[in-house]
Amino acid sequence: MTIRERQMTAEELLRMPSIEFRCELVKGELIKMPFAEAEEGFVAGNI
User: Within a domain: residue 15?
Assistant: First the structure.
């Protein structure tokens, strides 16, 4: 894990090159998120 001296902004995230994983920006920290599994996708599609 890399320690940053300052937090990342939404603008910086939008300027990043395409990344190959889902992520969220939480309080200035980029958090890698797992992809939804088939069952989760099925349930979400039925809502």
Answer: yes
